[in-house]
Amino acid sequence: MSLAKTYGMRGIELVRGSGALVYDLEGNEYVDCTAGVGVVLLGHAHPELTRAISEQTQRLVTCYGIFDNDVRNEFARRFEAVTPGNLNTFFLSNSGSESVECALKLVRRYTGRTEVVAMSRAFHGRTLGALSAIWKPAYRKAFEPLVPGFSHVKYGDSEGLRNVVSESTAAVIVEPVQGEAGVVLPPEGYLQEVREICNESGALLIFDEVQSFGRTGNYFAAQTFGVTPDIACVAKGVAGGVPMGVTASTEEIFSALGVGEHGSTFGGNPLSCAAGIATLNVLQSENLIERGAEMGQRLLAGLRKIENESIREVRGIGAMVALEARFPCGGALKSCMENGVLVLASGRNVMRFLPPLVISEEQVDTVIEVVRSSLNANSTA
Ligand SMILES: *Cc1c(COP(=O)(O)O)cnc(C)c1O
Known about the structure:
Radius of gyration: 20 Å
Distance between the termini: 37 Å
Bound molecules: pyridoxal-5'-phosphate
């Protein structure tokens, strides 16, 4: 067997999940604060999602975009009801990177400009266009030359942005909450200022909500912060774990893309769309967006109470939480795993928690306790 060695392997083999729990080959149980990088908003194997997927496989799995499809149209109607502003037109794809690629092509076509301003520590995906927008030299450097026209300014610094955005700027792309950077929150008023700077220069504003979708106490962080972008990119949790990307914009902006100028073989397939509808249904019927945010706040408060000198900061919003240590936390992540809690890393020093929104209070408390003991066991070494 041979798989490309592009992932830092954790050394366990996961075979099954239920709610906020996953199980490895040996039957060990873990509280899953990775959720597949924040993907399974409804938890693993949610019965309603499982049923929707299973039923759709018996009707129609694939349907190329040249044909209309009942489930795809229904997803679009349902999604429109939760999007901010008049972002009522969607291009459907299969991943976050693809949702960003579509946005990058769209802004060129609509504005006739080619420059894009992105942020320090931004993450937008691994395809060459998205990679050009991300910041981390370790991800980019080896793949240059990338797509021309991208520049980066400091996230959170609106004056810096104002100095760079001009009449040649097609778009500013920003994660309203920076996920991969370690759950970095926008300073007060920052996103409003970014919106104004775009308005003044005619640049479009792209919010990359691939990670924040459903996690900030609203469907979109745009709603949480009261700022509406021209384009929103969504993926990760939107279909509850089934691959799906959505690029959402206005009808007017999307009218700039003509027939044949963009497309996707799998994008908008009925299987993903059925999963997307079930996900939206359950988010609403189980009040999960609010509940997940409450669980995130419980986690945040619990982590803040841990007394350990190695903690630099605990921060978060809704169900996006991070603990930044003063030292590399690989050892603590490993002890967490050995004690039944899976946590993501952001860089070397940050533990990141993106739990399923169905996580229970008891499970949150277990996470807090295991993180406490893992930090204590590793910080003195
Ligand atoms: C994960 C992520 C992406 C890339 O998504 P893929 O599905 O891995 O292509 C893009 N933007 C943000 C903000 C992300 O968190």
